[in-house]
Each structure stands twice: as C-alpha cells, then as structure tokens.
Amino acid sequence: MEDVAKEGDVLKFKVVGKDPKTKKWKLSRRVLLPRPERPESSRPQETKEEA
To answer: Are strands 14-18 and 25-28 parallel, antiparallel or unpaired?
Structure first.
C-alpha cells in the first residue's frame, strides 16, 4: 500500500464489520470511492415495443 498512502497520511474508511474470531475490524476504502461510469457499449439497450 506504499504506492497509495504512507505513514502519517489521513485516510477515510468505512467499517464494514468485525471478525468474530480475531476481533479485528474490517475496513473498506473502496466503498467510499465513486463508482466509475460504464461505457455506452456495455449499457443495456432500450428496446421499443411495437403495438
């Protein structure tokens, strides 16, 4: 993780759970990041229904 952050950096994380066995907190930084937009080609096509 040295390429993303270094010691002393302040980061935001979301607590997503706690491991009951080890009692360690489960943290996620990814859930706070904006979702990337999908390209037009991967979006579902809208179909026109004929009456």
So the answer is: antiparallel
Assessment of whether the complete model's pTM goes beyond 0.70:
no
Do the Cβ atoms of 49 and 34 come closer than 8 Å? no
Number of Cβ within a 10 Å radius of residue 21 = 6
Token look-up 């809208």 returns: 46
Contact 28, 16 (CB under 8 A): yes
Q: What are the residue ranges in the chain where pLDDT is below 50? A: 51
Residue 23, sorted as left (phi over 0), alpha (psi -120 to 50) or beta, turns out to be left
